[in-house]
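DM from R.C. (forwarded with permission)

"hey, sorry to bug you on a friday — could you get me a structure for this? deadline for the figure draft is monday and I only need the backbone to look sensible"
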Amino acid sequence: MAAPAGQSSLIDIDATYLPVQQMRQIARVTALEGATIAGEVDLGSEHWVYAQHFPGDPIFPGTLIIEAAGQLVALWAWADGQRGRPRLVKTSAEFRAPVEIEDPQIVLDAVVRRKRHLNFADVTVRTQRQVVASVSMVLAVVPAAEA
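My reply, with the result:
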């Protein structure tokens, strides 16, 4: 998913190892400095998930919030020079409020610490109205097999 006109990403997301099409959650990286990274997920009332996730009472699924957090940490690992296959090893999430159909986007802010091929991260997830979740995770970047 490319950034909308007038909005750029600090990382060429299409060049990374993120999922594609509907499974790509991160639309753009908005900040990247040292151990921190920030990114955005574009939503809007036409987002594909709302027609399927509790029709009549649509909310953005917590599993996709965790997926977005993992993708953001994988992008940090990419920017850090790690190449291979990113895999979530462990996650813990606390959900404080739902992300609703009126929310135009989700903003994620992460602090990451690397130890060899493991990336330990704390991610804060918010909408323009409020903090909706906190996600702690360990993401491993498994080296690609030599050909």
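R.C.: lifesaver. The mean pLDDT is 91.
me: no worries. The chain has one domain: 13-142.
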